[in-house]
Amino acid sequence: MQREFCLRCLYIDLNSRRARRASLDPSLSRSFLGGRGIGIWFLAGSPRTEALSTQAPLIFATGALTGSRIPSSARLSVSAFSPLTGTVCSCSVGGGLCVQMRKAGVDIIHVTGRADRDLALLIHDQEVKFEDVDLPADASLSMIFEGLRPFGGSAAAVGPAAMKGCSYASIMVDSLFASGRGGLGLVMAAKNLRVVAVKGSGSSSPKVCDRRGEEAARSDIIRLFDASPAVMGRSGISRFGTGALVDLMASRRMMPTANFRRTFFQDYRAFSASSVRDNQQPGHYGCHGCPIACKQKSSHEIPEYETLSHFGALNENADLASIIEANHLCNE
Questions:
Q1: How far apart are CA 159 and CA 332, in angstroms?
Q2: Could you tell me if 271 and 320 are in contact, meaning their C-beta atoms sit under 8 angstroms apart?
Q3: What pLDDT digit, counting tens, does each position of 253-263 carry?
Q4: What is the DSSP letter of 176?
Q5: CA distances (Å), 89 to each of 63, 82, 83, 95, 316, in order?
Q6: How far apart are alpha carbons 51 and 255 in whole angstroms?
Q7: Nearest by Cα to 171 from 108, 82, 101, 107
Q8: pLDDT single digits (tens) 207-248
């Protein structure tokens, strides 16, 4: 008999500092699966809510395949009403938080309310702690994540941009993965919630009814990866990170340049993937279960394609060192 699929939700009320666990109805779980789908379902329950109001929800949701053997499935969707646009904002982000949530027996963290002072939410398996934090508004994210190191697990945090009211501030996961674009960081900061940290000791693998089907899907995806020169080729993303797209976009005259006045930057080679490799000699790593391992790091995090392109061509800047430093400052 097929087992019921029920999303497990941890409801957090910051006003009362209370946590409540509940399983969503199986039909609701099957209809929306998790991730962005269930996040938007929660937001649809109060569509006129102001983004920064006390009862505006902030939702961290794993996907149905998070923690499975399916490649590139280790993603977390963060959803809220956007203070930048006044509409729905949902962002997919990498890092380890989604897997730690699964290990702690949580598919969704649903946050409402506003703490009376800056707070860290610490979730360790079945235990939920609300801890006051004494951090200055301009505390860098590297300092915040360094302070979380003894806790272990994975964490999301907000930094100076969010605390100072920037309407497009990001939530940073594990210091390097940004959940941003629509001001999700400002939503979190408006709740006086500086940190959400999760550590689990259970299994991260979802309950799969059809193991043979899972393996067939996994094999198909890996075969498609292997067949793509842009992904697994000798000049592809697996070897050079997403910076491999710099050459591709330049060759197709599709790189936004000079604040979108042109589509080709003559000096793009200064921040191409081969230039990054030669100048930085970075190491590679990736999200849980991902064979591509597109992330790169040397003494600093190596920027993704969009950052290389926009701090480069968009600003007519051919100085790779300044692009890397600008990315570092934004992450902080």
A1: 7
A2: yes
A3: 999 999 999 99
A4: T
A5: 17, 5, 9, 19, 30
A6: 33
A7: 82
A8: 767 888 888 999 999 999 999 888 898 888 888 889 999 999
* Whole-structure pTM value: 0.91
Q: How many residues does the chain have?
A: 332
Rg (C-alpha) for the chain, rounded Å, is 20
Beta strands, E only, 16-170: 18-23, 58-62, 76-81, 88-93, 108-112, 119-124, 127-132, 154-157
Structure tokens at 277: 């490799």
Residue 271 has pLDDT above 60, yes or no: yes
Residue at 91: amino acid letter: C
Is beta strand 154-157 parallel, antiparallel or unpaired with respect to 171-173? antiparallel
Q: What angle do CA 191, 328, 79 make, to 5 degrees?
A: 35
SS3 (DSSP) at 88: strand
Within 10 Å of residue 254's Cβ, how many Cβ atoms?
A: 12
Q: Which residue has the tokens 């009320």?
A: 13
Residues near 205 by beta carbon (within 8 Å), at least 6 away in sequence: 67, 68, 69, 102
The b-or-e profile of 183-217 (16+ CB within 10 A means b, else e) is bbbbbbbbbbbbbbbbbbeeebbbeeeeeeebeeb
Say how far apart CA 145 and CA 143 lie, in whole Å. Answer: 6
Helix (H) or strand (E) run with residue 177 in it: strand 177-179
List 52's β-bridge partners, or say none.
none
Q: Cβ of 160: how many Cβ atoms within 10 Å?
A: 16
Residue 299 vs residues 266, 272, 283, 296: alpha-carbon distances, Å? 28, 18, 10, 10
- For 283, how many CA atoms within 13 A lie in the half-sphere containing its CB? 4
pLDDT at 3 > cutoff 70: no
What whole-number distance in Å separates Cα of residue 84 and Cα of residue 312? 25
Nearest to 31 by CA among 14, 20, 47, 44: 44
Cβ-contact 154, 173 below 8 angstroms: yes
Q: What residue has token string 């990001």?
A: 170
